[in-house]
């Protein structure tokens, strides 16, 4: 017997479908309105939406407030960028112990971004997940800062200036040129991640992860390997954030160390909280809302942070369950 | 006597200057109910935490089902068949009562590393979960989030969750804590119905419940065992009467 879906769940699905339809028609509407130059902005929003949803996977469902997800986002971007850089220069990425060449193929770059960011998340998680609460926040932040300074220390990849990319990736021998292909790729990756992640959260793995957030002691007493469950969730989350980074690198044809910074990690947390943690769709909405606010406010005033702060504050105070809670009328967890 | 299912050998645990548990040995035989009583601060809850693996002893050993589990994590002991209820209810408060039981039913079947199949759709396990809810008298309340159940219902659910993982031994930390007289009687009846199906190590303050259920009683005071034996013997023991029962019996 399945538990019947309550009204807010159905309302949430309706809202999610409407959102998807809006995103599907957006490129055509924007072109028709002669606003095609906004499409790259939307691609960026989709990529951040993916990164925020990836963070929600562990933050909202696992209760693990990672302050280091910028490192995974940036790692994905740099892996993509470095592969493209060396492909352009026709030099190997690595000579020893095995020779790895550059690549402009998206089918190489995106999995490589996911695997590298996932492996980094595994290593960082393996240490961080032995701590709880504030210590976990601090240790993930510390690791992310290490990655940040490590990347800055490699002069070949531009240091603080970042890395200009010679081209975008190719997908099945077609270059991802123009604004539309990369938009569709970003949308497909986001929708794919959301569908799989929603499913996972109703499967045994997801229930165990959510149960451990609500009551770790009980889950241990029931025999659940809480540490291993969290470590795997953290790894998956890091890998997905890495894919988001690969999208960003392609969209901008540029990789900035800024992506690895703690400010970026903080923004991702803001997107999750603003949108509604533990909902997956909410953080995507949060990413759109936050980037839109940044975009609009920075056009009006250079002191836009002064305006953004109070707006976020009011959102958190009055929409306890985030923007998605307002849309679906749902409790954030259940 | 047969080889005990659970055996603690000279367990000791200090917290700073306080010897919470000092040199405690006891065992639990298959199917019996062994009660541990003692005044507040006697070390009963610490003893259960040591047996469950939540804290590590300074010295001594714990053997479960022939295996030395002294250093084993709580989750490993649980998978070996050692269940546990807590003095303060430990449930996943946002999950429904049914989902709490489902988590327990699933814990010892396969691994939690399944990613795509809906957990609620596993028919045999769902049937077991529903049966456990009926036994606990919570069938009507199955879809209510555990955190919204009444205190009495939460205590029943706590027991149902512990039993749903089909343990061979159950550590019960004051199952009647915070319950009124009628609810206490109901809980005692439910525990009596479990007797023989699972070995119970019962920490309890309510003496009616203890003497109704226990086959053996061990009395702790200031972290030490001051008496252990059949209920009639404990009732008659003068040291016990002085240390603990005296207040109750003479009142």
Order of helices and strands of chain B: EEEHEEHEHHHEHEHEEHH
Helix-strand category of chain A: mainly alpha
Give the helix level of chain A as a range of percent: over 70%
Helix content of chain B: 25-40%
The total domain count of chain B is 2
CA distance, first residue to last residue of chain A: 17 Å
| CATH topology heading of the largest domain in chain B | Rossmann fold
Cα(first) to Cα(last) distance of chain B is 37 Å
What is the top-level CATH class of the largest domain in chain B?
Alpha Beta
The stretches of 5 or more residues of chain B where confidence is low (pLDDT under 50) are: none
Strand arrangement in the largest pleated sheet of chain B: 6-7-8-3-9-10
* Rg for CA atoms of chain B: 18 Å
Word description of this protein:
The complex is a heterodimer of chains A (334) and B (251). By secondary structure, chain A is mostly helical. Chain A has a domain at 40-261. Helices cover 70% and strands 4% of the residues of chain A. Chain A contains 13 helices and 6 strands. Chain A has helices at residues 7-32, 39-59, 69-89, 106-128, 133-152, 179-202, 204-214, 216-221, 226-252, 262-275, 281-300, 304-318, 322-328, and strands at residues 92-94, 100-101, 163-164, 170-171, 174-175, 254-255. Chain A has a two-stranded antiparallel sheet. In chain A, strands 3-6 form a two-stranded antiparallel sheet. In chain A, a hairpin with a 2-residue loop joins strand 4 and strand 5. Chain B is α/β, with parallel strands linked by helices. Chain B folds into 2 domains: 1-81 and 170-251, Rossmann fold, CATH 3.40.50; 93-166, no CATH class. Helix content of chain B is 37%, strand content 24%. Chain B has helices at 44-52, 74-79, 97-107, 123-135, 151-164, 181-194, 207-213, 231-236, 238-250; strands spanning 6-15, 18-28, 33-37, 59-64, 67-68, 82-85, 169-173, 199-203, 216-221, 224-229. In chain B, the strands form 2 sheets. Chain B has a 6-stranded mixed β-sheet with strand order 6-7-8-3-9-10, with helices on both faces. In chain B, strands 2-1-4-5 form a 4-stranded antiparallel β-sheet, covered by helices on one side. In chain B, strand 1 (6-15) and strand 2 form a beta hairpin. In chain B, helix 3 (97-107) packs parallel to helix 5 (151-164). The longest helix of chain B has 14 residues, at 151-164. Chain B is globular, with a radius of gyration of 18 Å.
């Amino acid at each position: 017997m399945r538990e019947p879906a309550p009204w807010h769940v159905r309302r949430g699905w309706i809202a999610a479908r409407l959102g998807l339809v809006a995103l599907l028609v957006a490129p055509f509407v924007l072109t028709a309105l002669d606003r095609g130059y906004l499409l790259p902005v939307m691609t960026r929003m989709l990529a951040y939406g993916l990164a925020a949803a990836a963070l929600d996977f562990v933050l909202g469902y696992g209760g693990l407030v990672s302050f280091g997800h910028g490192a995974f986002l940036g790692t994905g971007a740099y892996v993509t960028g470095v592969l493209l850089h060396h492909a352009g220069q026709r030099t190997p990425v690595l000579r020893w112990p095995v020779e790895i060449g550059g690549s402009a193929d998206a089918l190489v770059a995106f999995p490589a971004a996911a695997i590298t960011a996932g492996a980094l998340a595994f290593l960082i998680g393996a240490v961080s997940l032995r701590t709880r609460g504030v210590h976990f926040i601090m240790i993930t932040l510390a690791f992310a800062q290490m990655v940040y300074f490590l990347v800055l220390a490699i002069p070949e990849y531009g240091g603080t200036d970042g890395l200009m990319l010679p081209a975008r990736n190719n997908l099945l021998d077609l270059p991802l040129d123009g604004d539309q292909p990369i938009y569709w790729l970003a949308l497909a990756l986001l929708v794919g991640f959301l569908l799989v992640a929603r499913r996972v959260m109703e499967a045994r793995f997801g229930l165990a992860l959510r149960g451990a957030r609500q009551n770790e002691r009980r889950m241990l007493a029931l025999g659940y390997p809480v540490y291993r469950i969290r470590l795997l969730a953290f790894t998956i989350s890091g890998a997905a954030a890495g894919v988001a980074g690969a999208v960003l690198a392609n969209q901008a044809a540029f990789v900035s160390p800024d992506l690895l910074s703690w400010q970026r990690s903080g923004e991702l947390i803001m997107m999750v909280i603003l949108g509604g943690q533990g909902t997956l769709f909410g953080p995507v909405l949060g990413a759109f809302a936050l980037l839109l606010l940044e975009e609009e406010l920075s056009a009006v005033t250079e002191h836009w942070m002064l305006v953004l702060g109070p707006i976020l504050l009011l959102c958190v105070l009055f929409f306890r369950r985030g923007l998605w809670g307002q849309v679906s009328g749902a409790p954030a967890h259940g | 006597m047969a080889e005990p299912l659970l055996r603690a050998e000279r367990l000791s645990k200090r917290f700073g200057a306080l010897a919470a548990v000092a040199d405690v040995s006891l065992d639990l035989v298959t199917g019996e109910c062994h009660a541990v009583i003692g005044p507040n601060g006697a070390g009963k809850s610490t003893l259960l935490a040591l047996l469950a693996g939540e804290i590590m002893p300074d010295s001594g050993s714990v053997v479960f089902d022939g295996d030395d589990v002294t250093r084993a994590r709580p989750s490993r002991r649980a998978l070996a068949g050692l269940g546990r209820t807590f003095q303060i209810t430990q449930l996943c408060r946002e999950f429904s009562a049914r989902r709490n039981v489902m988590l327990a039913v699933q814990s010892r079947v396969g691994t939690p590393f399944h990613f795509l199949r809906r957990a609620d759709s596993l028919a045999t396990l769902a049937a077991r979960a529903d049966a456990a809810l009926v036994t606990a008298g919570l069938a009507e309340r199955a879809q209510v989030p555990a955190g919204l159940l009444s205190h009495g219902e939460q205590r029943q659910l706590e027991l149902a969750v512990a039993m749903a993982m089909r343990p061979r031994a159950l550590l019960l930390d004051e199952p009647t804590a915070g319950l009124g007289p009628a609810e206490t009687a109901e809980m005692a009846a439910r525990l009596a119905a479990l007797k023989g199906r699972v070995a119970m190590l019962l920490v309890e303050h309510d003496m009616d419940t203890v003497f109704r259920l226990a086959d053996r009683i061990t009395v702790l005071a200031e972290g030490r065992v001051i008496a252990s034996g059949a209920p009639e013997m404990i009732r008659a023991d003068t040291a016990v009467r002085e240390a603990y029962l005296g207040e109750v019996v003479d009142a």
